Amino acid sequence: MSLEKLIQRIQEEAEREKEEIIRRAEEKAKKIVKEAEEKAKEEAEKIIEKAKKESERIKEKILASAKRKARMYIADAKEEIINECYEKVKEKLKKLDSKEYKKIIEKELKKALKEIKEGYVMISRKEDEEIAKKYSLEVKGKIDCLGGMILKSKDGSKEIDLTFDFSLERKKDEIRIEIARNLFG
After folding, report:
1. Distance, CA of 32 to CA of 161 (rounded, Å)
2. Angle at the Cα of 45 from the Cα atoms of 40 and 50, rounded to 5 degrees
3. What is the DSSP letter of 142?
4. In this structure, are residues 148 and 165 in contact, taking their beta carbons and an 8 Å threshold?
5. Has residue 1 got a pLDDT over 80?
6. Is the torsion defined by CA of 178, 180, 183, 185 positive or negative?
7. Could you count the other beta carbons within 10 Å of the beta carbon of residue 180?
8. Rounded to the nearest 5°, which phi and psi values hold at 137?
9. Which is nearest to 151 in space by CA: 160, 143, 164, 142?
10. Which of 153, 158, 170, 179 has its CA 20 to 30 A from that of 185?
11. How far is residue 116's CA from residue 158's CA, in Å, rounded to a whole number?
């Protein structure tokens, strides 16, 4: 075998080895790139899933806040309506016709006279003078209120407030609940 053929054979073998090394390197590079792409895709999916969960959490938080604000707005509106109705009740009591007014006050006064047999009254309306005379009670002053009177014992030790103002204040919560029940079910 001649030297030239030997050199040629060595060169051919070296070329084949070189091509084999390059082919394996390219396969390895492709494999590394493919693995990196898969890993990147997995990471991207994780990031997307995390972002979806976070956006869902934020959406729920915003929605809950909006619902809370809506409930507060509705509650405030209902409260305003209840207050208006309560004020209308006061106005109706203030404007009761004489006959109805006397009927209510006499009924309450009869109950009060069971506790205070002898006394005097402080009145709020003209009709109260007639009621006081009817029950032989002395009138000792006027009070500023929606209507009614205050019965006091002669010695001043007992007092029964028969005013609409006092009755309304004492039953305010019950009245407001009843108004709400009638209006809003």
Report:
1. 94
2. 125
3. E
4. yes
5. no
6. negative
7. 15
8. -110, 140
9. 160
10. 170
11. 8
User: Going by C-beta distance under 8 Å and a sequence separation of 6 or more, which residues neighbour residue 28?
Assistant: none
Amino acid residing at 148 = G
CA R_g for the chain: 47
Q: How far apart are CA 163 and CA 95, in angstroms?
A: 14
Q: d(Cα 163, Cα 81) in Å, to the nearest integer?
A: 25
Residue with tokens 């997307």: 48
Structure tokens given for 128: 């109260």
Tokens of 129: 């003078």
* CA–CA separation, 23 and 4 (whole Å): 28
Tens of pLDDT, residues 109-163: 999 999 998 888 998 888 899 999 999 999 999 999 999 999 999 888 999 999 9
Token pair for 174: 């019950």
Per-residue model confidence as pLDDT tens digits over 6-33 = 788 888 888 888 888 888 988 898 998 8
The tokens of 26 are what?
């390219």
Sorted by sequence, the CB contacts under 8 Å of residue 124 that are 6+ apart come out as 142, 143, 144, 145, 146, 147, 148, 149, 163
In the numeric block, the tokens 């956006």 are attached to 55
